[in-house]
Amino acid sequence: MTKPFTEQTVLITGASRGIGAAIAERFASVGLNVVIHYKESHEAANEVARSCMRHGAKVLTVSADLRSKDQILKMKEKLEQRDMVPDIVVNNAGVAHYGLLTEITESDWDHIMDVNLKGAFLCTQAFMATMIQNKYGRIINVSSIWGISGASCEVVYSTAKGGMNAFTKALAKELAPSGITVNAVAPGAVDTVMMSGFEDDEKAAIKNEIPAGRFAMPDEIASLVYFLALPESGYITGQIISPNGGWLT
Fold first, then answer.
1. Which residue of 23, 81, 99, 233 is most buried, as measured by CB atoms within 10 A?
2. Is the whole model's pTM more than 0.85, yes or no?
3. 157 flagged as catalytic
4. Per the record's keyword annotation, is RNA-binding included, yes or no (predicted)?
């Protein structure tokens, strides 16, 4: 490791709300430098930044469309100028889609794949060279339980997250000799805006299927991401860990 953990920098994509915001605050609470990525939610990202700065952390917000390699490289350049090149990359940005496969357009498919999978690839590729040079790094991908089991009416989303899981396992083998771990956190149902598309009776039905009887809170997912980023977690790599309240075992 090139520097003490509390002097490291973490980049969280899609950090303007939900799980990403919780992850940003978790790292800020112990003093890491935090880069909050967002695409369009400028004020929401600033609110997360203000919350992180209350912990005394150095915080930077950056906007980029993760579907664009040019925009990611511009984001990288900005981080280099601010001396905030990440030691830890959390690929959290994602979009969901609920509907029958017969109703999915080619444009829908491309958008979901580009944000969930291509974005993780491009962002990882942009920052892994520095990790390789330093012989240290953490790449943590936020996947989904549906990437493991698949979900009816969420075929494209499940496919994208399944691809992210395969990406995680393969890249972990590629980067392990360089002291870099690559893991995925694949949550079950989490109490975020992504659940807003479900009616109350649908949410109740989902909770009834979960042995824990509730949705996860974003902070609980953030704690697992934080654990995987720790220096002492260096022998954990290539794993898909699913905090899901016993929904999938």
1. 23
2. yes
3. yes
4. no
